[in-house]
What we know:
This protein is α+β, with helices and mostly antiparallel strands. The protein folds into four domains: 2-50; 60-163, CATH 2.40.50.140; 166-220, no CATH class; 315-391, no CATH class. Helix content is 56%, strand content 13%. It is built from 14 helices and seven strands. Strands 1, 2, 3, 4, 5, 6 and 7 form a seven-stranded mixed sheet that branches. Strand 2 and strand 3 (85-95) form a beta hairpin. Helix 8 crosses helix 9 and helix 11 (293-307) packs antiparallel against helix 12 (315-336). The longest helix has 30 residues, at 359-388. The radius of gyration is 24 Å and the shape is globular. The relative contact order is 0.07.
Amino acid sequence: MLAAQTQPGLTLPLLSAALCGVGVLYFRRERPYLLALAFVFALGMARLEAAHPSADAEHISRLNNLGQLTVEGWVIREPEALDSRQRVLVATDRAGGHAVQGRLLAYIPRNSTVAYGDRVQLFGRLTTPPQFDTFSYRDHLAQQAIFSVMPTADVQVLAQGGGRPFTRAILRLKEDARSTIQSALPEPHASLLVGILLGDETGLPQSTREAFNRTGTAHIIAISGFNMAILAQFIHLGVGRLFPRRRWGVTWSSIALIALYTVLVGAGAAVVRAALMSSLLLVGQTVRRKSYVPASLSAAALLMSIADPWVWWDVGFQLSLAAVLGMALFVEPFKRGLFGDLVQRTTHPLGRPGAGHPSGCHSRHCRRTGCHNTAHPVVLRAFCLGFAAGQ
């Protein structure tokens, strides 16, 4: 049944091409543009259809809801620490004494020592991800080619050293950096710096999280476009001092270091978007062209959707895209318009614009309002889906 639901097809590409073909018949002057649009749109739909995961006869999902069994496989992602458990993604190869294949999302005890590249043996009950009235957790995981969940699993490590050597080296570097920070600083300062630099917020105390949420500064902890842009400039300046006469060499070396840092912090959708835009910024500086944010944002979104069309369903990517788009489109109009004058009057202690008013405060309020205008619909949708899912 899962295979039938996720089987790739050409329905959407053909339908989109047909709709654009109808437009060509009615709008003859714009025919070349509509034909190009139809071709590009059809390619996009074909890429989306091709990205649909499938589950064949030997897939692990065929054993869902059949009782407890033993499953073996390799950990293919860094384990994610939750409040009382760890969440691990396993590429299975044996289950119940038979050869299988497919991904399994398992929840193991928090104190389990499991790492990327370990071969593990899991014992528990396989279940099909649930569906809710307004949100399908099953479809959400299916976009990641995950059709089976083991909510409570006992784990035993059978072997170590699997996976990609490059990924293991990156995760080892990340662990060394975390250990260095934790040995140099007391808590909660160490966990805060680990969250800012390495994107790992699991060690932050709940009181610290609540303090950042109350003050509206929780974005400082997350790896954002602002942080990535600052890092990109520091890397570019540092490499440029080492090789002052090799302009393109400095740019490509800086982009390579940015990519390495992106992998180090987990390569989430929002982080990848920020890394791509920062890289485009460096390329623009190299050719002495000013970066245009909407164009850079569109290019980053296009590259990411080609690599993974399902990225558009990632809430972190949606929020990141909406916030940057809001700043690009609304900040300058707000500064020049009536709203900018209102912000100046309401933030100045004497109610008068100018007269010593800090321009940074004015710009900050406009940026915040621009972000909120485009990000709030995404937040509302995510909140409703999370509430429906009981999370």
